[in-house]
Amino acid sequence: MTLVYDDLGDEAAQDVPVRKIRFTVNGRRLVAEIEPRLLLADLIRRGVGLTGTHRGCDTTNCGACTVLVDGTAVKSCTMLAVQVDGHEVTTVEGLASASELHPLQEGFRQEHGLQCGFCTPGMMLAAKALLDRNPDPTEEDVRWALSGNLCRCTGYQNIVKSVLWAAEKLAEREPKPAEASAGNQRGGITDDDH
To answer: What are the structural domains, with CATH classification, of the chain?
Structure first.
């Protein structure tokens, strides 16, 4: 990772504290030597090279920098990178598989949930955190979950529709109760027979 700072002379360069952290980004295990004051957004963008995490306000107001840390939506512009030592970070680049879009990404496309796209990665990750804990949200649930993310283009209606579309798609992927119980049968005996 490259860090740039003011040259205060040879002796001062040795005094710059560095901390080694181990963390995972989108399933990739990494080690970084960083200054303790480095923000998570900067580690993700400049250190790891994933530029889907955007910097908008640097005050947690806009949510463009939202990522997931151990499944919880956090604003990476005010979280120190050292805080992810030993943790899993998910960015927008980690949503899709190699062959298909995540339902949230597909939903934003299908329901026209983006215009300029600057807020979109943060919106998607805040929505993913919601859908992970509440797979059948109401419109009010979605609006509340996204209330920490600003969009200056869309007016939010299509963003909300995009998240609800994704929730429906994710629900379709889940096995139906009859299918799930059929999977639990062993030689004609079900788990309920015991």
So the answer is: 17-94 (3.10.20.30), 96-173 (1.10.150.120)
